[in-house]
UniProtKB/TrEMBL annotation:
Gene3D superfamilies: MFS general substrate transporter like domains. This is MFS transporter. Residues 1-194 form the Major facilitator superfamily (MFS) profile domain. PANTHER family: BYPASS OF STOP CODON PROTEIN 6 (PTHR23514), INNER MEMBRANE PROTEIN YBJJ (PTHR23514:SF13). Keywords: Membrane, Transmembrane, Transmembrane helix. The keyword Signal does not apply. Coiled coil: none annotated. The chain crosses the membrane at residues 12-33, 45-63, 75-97, 103-127, 139-160, 166-189, 216-239, 251-270, 282-304, 310-331, 338-360, 366-388.
Length: 391
């Protein structure tokens, strides 16, 4: 006989297993980012060819997301998440070992495909565990991802300091990630999740109070705009402090550090707020806070106030994306295909958003270009009702 205490222990173990997936995902992602300059140097390619490699990684990720959505509906979220993150750890070694551009490009496509698979699989697993918990816990998973990226960056820096070599460092990190994923697999591969073709059909043709396809489109727009704003802050905050206010590179990096730190810390606490006031209010007020942060950054003539503005942006963007992914994962009772579409749309913003900011910066200025993410998050505040739980 299964007691309530046994069920609680199983839920806690499942949550810990999904934490392992998110941490490993962040670890591998940061390792790839830290070693990009080394890949460029080893292969002897130009900056433009390195950009092509990044586009190929993005294309592989988009394909992986669409494939993994169908796999989640057929085999469950746990196996797909485990397979995707383990695949990332192994695929990472291919471009890091590359000596030529074609080899690096092929490795980037493999890494991208695994990344897309992992992105959908682990978020679907998080939705499943959150549904069984009966209360919001999604933001904490994304906070653990942020911690994984910090650890990956620190381990990469340690590898450089010890002159360990790019491939050797990548191999160590891949082994660590595989061990952590193995621990998660012991739990998640035994866990039964309600992912079936019948659910997928319900997600396409549910009887919510709004047409399901329309709701999926709105959730996709929310994901796109929120991740565009997040990507813009990640890629351009440090440079903005240097170009617009004359900060040194070390001081300018505080803009990015403040943004990331604020977003990570709040994601460990935002779930309790969602439980009390609901996801709609969280998305609405978080998006409004992010807009206020961008406004401070654009209007501030002082470096200290600008740094405060980036912290406010981080506070605001901390709660939106987890609520959008939770809503997408529960459309029609739960469908990997629906989640993959929303995640894929958001990923397009990660790829294209910072580039659009750079183009606008050339046309006007980097400071003025931040009007784009500011308007985007204001639109999200107005569309917040889309994340309301449906029966």
């Amino acid at each position: 006989m299964v007691t309530e205490a046994d069920q609680l222990r199983r839920l806690v173990r499942a949550r810990a297993a999904v934490f392992c997936l998110f941490a490993s995902f962040g670890l591998v992602t940061a390792t790839w980012a830290v070693h990009l300059p080394s890949v460029k140097q080893t292969t002897g390619i130009s900056t433009s060819l390195l950009g092509v490699i990044l586009l190929m990684l993005g294309a592989g990720a988009l394909v992986g997301m669409q494939v993994s959505g169908k796999l989640v509906d057929r085999f469950g979220s746990g196996p797909v998440g485990v397979l995707g993150v383990a695949g990332m750890a192994l695929a990472l070694l291919v471009p890091l070992a590359a000596g030529t551009w074609p080899w690096a490009a092929a490795g980037a496509v493999l890494l991208g495909f695994a990344t897309g698979t992992a992105e959908v699989g682990m978020n679907a697993a998080a939705v499943d565990v959150e549904r069984d918990y009966g209360r919001p816990i999604m933001a904490a998973f994304h906070a653990v991802f942020s911690i994984g990226t910090v650890l990956g960056a620190l381990l990469g820096a340690a590898g450089f300091a010890l002159a360990a070599g790019v491939f050797a460092t990548g191999l160590v990190i891949a082994v660590i990630a595989l061990v952590v994923v193995g621990l998660a697999a012991v739990i998640l591969l035994r866990r039964r999740t309600p992912s079936s073709s019948a659910q997928a059909e319900d997600a396409e043709f549910g009887d919510d109070d709004a047409p399901p396809r329309r709701r999926v489109v709105i959730l996709g727009v929310l994901a796109f705009l929120l991740l565009m704003a997040e990507g813009s802050a990640m890629d351009w905050s440090s440079l903005h402090a240097q170009q617009h206010l004359g900060a040194s590179p070390s001081i300018g990096s505080l803009a990015l550090g403040g943004f990331v730190a604020a977003m990570t810390v709040v994601r460990f606490t935002i779930d309790r707020i969602v439980e009390r006031v609901g996801p709609v209010q969280v998305v609405r007020w978080c998006a409004s806070t992010a807009a206020a942060g961008f406004a401070i950054v654009m209007a501030s003539p002082f470096l200290a106030l600008t740094l405060v503005g980036w912290v406010v942006v981080g506070l605001g963007l901390s709660g939106g994306v987890p609520q959008v992914f939770t809503a997408a994962g529960n459309v029609g009772g739960g469908s990997g295909r629906v989640l993959s579409r929303v995640v894929g749309t958001g990923y397009l913003a990660v790829l294209a958003g910072p580039g659009v900011i750079g183009w606008l910066a050339d046309c006007v200025s980097l400071n003025t270009a931040f009007a784009l993410p500011l308007c985007g998050v204001l639109i999200c505040a107005g569309m917040a009702r889309a994340v309301a739980p449906r029966r």
